[in-house]
Amino acid sequence: MKKILDLIAGELKPVFAECGYDEAYAKVNLSNRPDLCEYQCNGAMAAAKAYRKKPIDIASDVVEKAAGNPMFAEISAVMPGFINIRLNGEWLAGYLNGMRTQEKLGLEAPEQPETLIVDYGGANVAKPLHVGHLRAAIIGESVKRMGKFLGHHVIGDVHLGDWGLQMGLIIEELRDRKPELPYFDEGFTGEYPQEAPFTIGELEEIYPAASAKSKEDTDEGRAFKERAQTATFKLQSGYKPYYAIWQHIMKVSLADLKKNYDSLNVHFDLWKGESDAQPYIPGLIQELIDKGLAYESQGALVVDIAEETDAKELPPCIIRKSDGAALYATSDLATIVERERDFHPDHYIYVVDKRQELHFTQVFRVAKKAGIVGPERKMDFLGFGTMNGRDGKPYKTREGGVMRLERLISEVNEAAYQKIMENRTVSEEEARETAKIVGLSALKYGDLSNQAAKDYVFDIDRFTSFEGNTGPYILYTIVRIKSILNKDGGQPADGAILPSVTEAERALQLEITKYNEVLNASFDEIAPHKICQYVYDLSNACNRFYHDTRIITEENQAQKESWLSLVRLAKDVLETCIGLLGIDAPDRM
Fold first, then answer.
1. Measured between alpha carbons, how far is 285 from 511 in angstroms, rounded to an integer?
2. Paired residues of 86 in beta bridges
3. How far, in Å, CA of 514 to CA of 97, rounded?
4. What is the model's pLDDT at position 394?
5. pLDDT at residue 514, rounded to an integer
6. Which residue ranges form the domains of the chain, and what is each CATH number?
7. CB within 8 A of 549, min separation 6: which ones?
8. Mapping DSSP to helix (H, G, I), strand (E, B) and coil, where does residue 434 land?
9. Contact present, 452 and 476 (Cβ < 8 Å)
């Protein structure tokens, strides 16, 4: 189905043309004065200069010829030249009935589906997920889900940090703790053990201990860091014993990471990492040299990225340090080389901390300058802000440390459980299970309802509230509709939706019709917060309708079935939208 704004514009275009005006002026918007009209065309204002006529005269010409169109209940020209529109109730009901019968509720598919890579997650192996990993995971997951639902081929890649100095640190700390392991016996010639020499708990303790040791300003600290750097180099050069340790690290870490991401309802199509890009780095560097793009500067190899149109000076992108080591930029460029080979994507979206903007500006420009991707290739950086505590600083534990993601989820679930138990209508066991769903909605909606680039304050009490613009409020609305439908025997609501008879019903019908427009705009603008705003507005419209209408006791059977079909459609729209946010709804709360 076409978006409702496009359908209205489609009716006005031939009218503009018939009146002698370019049909491009027939663009329609939602009215910003719903007390006056539902939709508005401002084309006459723009056309006035081109045609040297008063806007009101142009608007009046169009309205005169559009009068009588069965789509419109009212169409009028008002000073200084607006065209105000109110839809015919029969036509509106017909559009809603079309949504009920269409796949994906009538969502308009893209004319040319694209292949997209969404790079999000970015966790480091051997380290537990903490609150700093939350935003990349849930924003990226939502972007991926939106793209797939709209009909694009979307590939979500976690892009792990799995090849840097932390590996050398772990190897050398393991050597100090367990020198008897065969990996450190240069005379060992057998097969290395299948079982890892550490658990995930031990591994998560080994890395910070090694990191702290390497930062000590002592002879021992400096020596340890040098050993770690040597171990990292040997690993990256393919030294078999260290590669075997690396495989253990990866296996143990990935199992834990997948468990934690699963608890967030976040799932990746690819579990690639920096290590996968390494084979492409030598060829990449040589190509940049051969094309005359890379040159030496103070011993390092760099590529200029500055353009004449830049508002501020941008530094060159460092491809190789003076000691010969590759950097994150090199790895990210090599990853693009790999993705071009494997997927030929039309569009890249990177969901990363906004403080990395310069880095990705450099990477994107080098990729295009070197011809790794075409000049028309879409490469978007979706930079997100910080999740802060009430003190305005990055969210931490009460003790002041970095909070593990597992602990954060547990605290939110407990808060949701307490809220559910305040008005308990379910068993304690069911309340615990429901709390997991409600808690996740509180966590994810509390984040996604903010514009990604903005910092926000994580307030567990507000986010788990069943009132206001929160995840639990949205779920409560859905559960309330399910309850209404179950009271009528739980049978599918198959009656045709009729024209509205009350203002609350009309408002609900109009809100539902925004679905197609909102989903497309949210993805085009890479803005999950627009879906959040929509489901909040739709939930409010649902609850106003519920309060104003006695659905179950309505004696007119056709009217009752119409209302049941309307709220079922509202529920389907709400569940579809929250699904794109990575949120599920329970059956009861």
1. 54
2. 74
3. 14
4. 85
5. 98
6. 4-87 (3.30.1360.70), 165-263 (no CATH), 273-343+354-384 (no CATH), 405-580 (1.10.730.10)
7. 502, 504, 505, 563
8. helix
9. no
E strand residue ranges, 120-243: 153-157
Q: Which two tokens stand for residue 28?
A: 């329609």
According to DSSP, the residues that pair with 383 across neighbouring strands are 352
- 10 Å CB burial of residue 355 (0-12, 13-18, 19+) is exposed
Do 120 and 154 contact (CB within 8 A), yes or no? no
| Cα radius of gyration (the chain) | 29
pLDDT of 343 reads 97
What is the rounded distance in angstroms from the CA atom of residue 175 to the CA atom of residue 197? 11
Q: To which residue do tokens 């890395």 refer?
A: 207
Q: Is the pTM of this model over 0.90?
A: yes
Q: Dihedrals φ, ψ of 242, to 5°?
A: -75, -30
* Residue 299: HSE in the Cβ half-sphere, 13 Å Cα cutoff: 5
Distance between CA atoms of residues 419 and 486, nearest Å: 24
What confidence score (pLDDT) does residue 491 get?
66
**Whole-angstrom distance, CA of residue 10 vs CA of residue 115:** 30
Nearest to 44 by CA among 10, 72, 20, 71: 20
Amino acid at 120: Y
Give Cα separations from 134 to 60, 184, 222, 266, 563 (angstroms): 54, 37, 34, 10, 40
Extract the tokens encoding 362: 């450099």
CA distance 32 to 42: 12
What's the DSSP call for residue 194?
S
* Tens-place pLDDT, residues 474-525: 999 999 999 999 987 766 668 999 999 999 999 999 999 999 999 999 999 9
| Residue with tokens 């789509």, as numbered in its chain | 71
The helix/strand/coil state of 348 is strand
**Sign, CA torsion 167/169/171/173:** negative
Q: Which residues contact 473 (CB under 8 A, 6 or more apart)?
A: 465, 466, 467, 536, 539
3-state helix, strand, coil in the chain (%, to 5): 55, 10, 35
- DSSP secondary structure letters along 251-313: HHHHHHHHHHHHHTT---SB--BHHHHGGGHHHHHHHHHHTT-EEEETTEEEE----TT-SS-
106 near 312, Cβ under 8 Å?
Answer: no
Provide the Cα torsion 94, 96, 101, 104; round to 10°: 140
User: pLDDT by residue (tens digit) across 375-409?
Assistant: 999 999 999 999 999 888 888 877 767 889 999 99
Contact residues for 394 (Cβ-Cβ < 8 A; gap 6+): 131, 132, 386, 387, 388
Tokens in use for 349? Answer: 């979206």
Structure-block tokens of residue 462 = 């507000």
pLDDT at 367: 98
- Half-sphere exposure at residue 126, Cβ-oriented, CA atoms within 13 angstroms: 29
544: exposed, middle or buried (Cβ count in 10 Å: 0-12, 13-18, 19+):
middle
- Give every residue of the chain whose pLDDT is below 70, as ranges: 400, 490-493
- Opening angle at CA 537, ends 532 and 539, nearest 5: 95
